[in-house]
Design goal:
The chain is mainly beta and 304 residues long. The protein is 15% helix and 37% strand. The strands form 5 sheets. Strands 13, 15, 17, 19, 20 and 21 form a 6-stranded mixed beta sheet that branches. A 4-stranded antiparallel beta sheet has the order 1-3-7-5, with no helix packed on it.
Length: 304
């Protein structure tokens, strides 16, 4: 009897441990399969194998065929940001898209405590992540850690970041060793062209080390020609630097915000990149529009 009961319990445990998996077909393949099914000319066979090679009668597979349901899941990291008083840090929002969804997702932080602010970010089509900036004012105060509430919106679809995690908390940290700012607000580049970004740092708390510059949330088909093997560094005796951002000839017109920061070199796993509070807009202009402007400028010069 004991042996039969143990077998019954193991069968129940295996059923409870069932894992659901889904597969998404590209739209053109989905249409082809749908057309084949309507014409009833060919029968389709689905072969499902367990990755562990288990072949027992206790494993069941179920196939569901349905219309695509565009959706996404959202995560924000770090989940426990330590924001320095009077400073700003980057947060990365990552979307897991499902059923071929490729629309823009607007990400924001909500219900921030007094003295805190955050930028919004857009995860654009063809991309899966974007960077927000979380800042604390010089007079910010927290008596206890505050909840980190992030949400993503795509039309009528609204998803909370890291759902079910009650330990997502914002903490207030002392003033950072580095404060980063930038006088550059907008960079306009044509495909194949180059623009420039100027940054400035202030060293605090007696810190006197060099500061590597980080650039986050770069648009597709753009690059940083000034960044060699060691990147762009602000050496111990430097507080300002200008670097270049380039668009490849294949870059498509569009706009995207980048975030610039200064990194404190340390082996500590704690937050060590501190960013400018305002992102910089990178605008890649259509090549045709640029050519027309150049032509009009050349014509006016010729008339003179």
């Amino acid at each position: 009897m004991k042996e039969k009961r143990s077998q019954g319990k193991s069968l129940k445990a295996q059923r409870k441990a069932a894992v659901r998996a889904s597969i998404t077909f590209p739209p053109d393949l989905y249409e082809t399969l749908e057309e084949i099914a309507q014409q009833k000319k060919v029968s389709l066979a689905w072969v499902v194998r367990d990755v562990q090679g288990q072949r027992t009668g206790n494993l069941a597979y179920r196939l569901t065929i349905r219309e695509p349901r565009h959706d996404f899941q959202l995560a924000i990291a770090p989940q426990n940001p330590n924001v320095p008083r009077g400073g700003s840090i980057p947060l990365t929002a990552t979307a897991i898209r499902t059923d071929g969804f490729d629309g823009p997702i607007e990400v924001s932080l909500e219900n921030l405590p007094a003295g805190f602010s955050a930028t919004k970010a857009i995860i654009r089509p063809g991309q899966n992540s974007a960077v927000l900036v979380l800042s604390a004012g010089v007079d910010a105060k927290l008596t206890s850690a505050a909840p980190l509430v992030g949400k993503g919106r795509a039309g009528a679809i609204v998803r909370e970041a890291n759902p079910g995690d009650a330990l997502q908390l914002i903490a207030l940290a002392p003033k950072a060793d580095v404060t980063m700012t930038s006088s550059t607000k907008v960079v306009e580049i044509e495909p194949g062209g180059v623009g420039s970004v100027s940054v400035k740092i202030a060293r605090n708390n007696g810190f006197g080390g060099r500061v590597p510059v980080d650039v986050l949330n770069m648009p597709p088909r753009t690059e940083l020609p000034s960044f060699g093997l060691n990147g762009v560094l602000l050496n111990e005796n430097e507080t300002e630097r200008t670097f270049e951002i380039a668009a490849t000839p294949q870059a498509e017109p569009g706009e995207q915000y980048i975030v610039v920061g200064g990194r404190v070199e340390t082996r500590s796993p704690q937050q060590n990149t501190f960013v400018a509070p305002e992102p910089i807009l990178v605008r890649i202009k259509p090549k045709t529009a640029i050519s027309q402007n150049e032509k009009s400028g050349s014509a006016s010069t010729a008339r003179k």
